[in-house]
Amino acid sequence: MSKTVVHVLRHGEVHNPEKILYGRIPGYKLSELGRQMAKAAAEALSKNDITYVVASPLERAQETAEPIAAQFKLGVAADERLLESTNLFEGKTFGVGDGALKHPRNWWSLRNPFRPSWGEPYIEVAQRMFAAVEAARDAARGHEAVCVSHQLPIWTLRRWLEGKRLWHDPRSRECALASLTSVHFEEDKVVSVGYQEPASHLIALSPEARTAKGA
């Protein structure tokens, strides 16, 4: 029976001095700390059997993938299915505790947290993410692959794989910067999902982690 592992890696810390919700806006790259996080993730996987590396087309994801690809002498493919979710608040300062939830201009966009009404439906995020993971599994059949993506898509994928409801409190996400959510397959069947934080020693230094505005 063929066993394959697809590691879904969240990118490292981003240089974001304006502290906005940057979403899919181009030009947001890793900070110096973020590059250290990417190296920590690469080191954690250095003894694994990685044969395929793919990332969201956004700069921060591609940069996070580079140290892993380099140590295995692989290229970095791009898959738009790994992109950050769309969000109506993209480009704005918006987060838990900043008062945005109380402003009347935002109420219509926040009317349905179960879908959610402010962005891409959770079920669509889960389905496209799993399709990307399946494609990576097929590319690395019998070995291991790495997919670099973003916090909300990764957490939504994990909840979907674990049979949990997709709507959630963002503060409850177990998907730290440069964390690995590993999907284990036997043939085409998911048999388990694991989680680790190889950059945990760096996360305490990250303003992005503290403010929870990263994606």
UniProtKB/TrEMBL annotation:
Pfam families: His_Phos_1. GO terms for cellular component: cytoplasm. It comes from Virgisporangium aliadipatigenens. GO terms for molecular function: phosphatase activity. SMART domains: PGAM. This is Phosphoglycerate mutase. Gene3D superfamilies: Phosphoglycerate mutase-like. It comes from the Bacteria.
